[in-house]
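Figure 2 data, in text form.
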Amino acid sequence: MGEDVVAPYLWDRGFRSLDVVVLSHAHEDHSGGLASLIAAFHPREVWTGFTPNGPEWRAVRDKAVAVGARIMPIRAPSQFAFGGTAIEVLAPAPDYVPLDEPKNNDSLVLRVTFGQRSFLLTGDVERGIEQEMAFTNELRPSDVLKVAHHGSRTAVRKSF
């Protein structure tokens, strides 16, 4: 996907490099094409949620190291400015304990605000993490929601 679809799309729009690529979590459907994008666009940084040492993560990590990209594990709660945006990290929580194999709840969840618009990027967090974010009042209305699990009907609760 990265080499055959995403890279040509970006090249067609004039992109020749990327400052950052973000890996929500190390499942193949979220990371499978990332190594080829890193090779093609040489980002300065790779932002990650939790990344258990599986083959998907090793491919991304090895390619990032090869192009000199800085790997940045990001954890909640944190906020920072980047490229004219305000970024809030909502997950993974500091007390989250990953397993030896990649799981959906390893996902990096970001709220990105640019001007008056905001985007909530949920990776593939599951309902328990959604509930935790809602319970701790970390969620605010967003203009765009990237729903978990590619929008399947079991992806998110309506209240979320």
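Caption note: The first strand starts at residue 20 and ends at 23.
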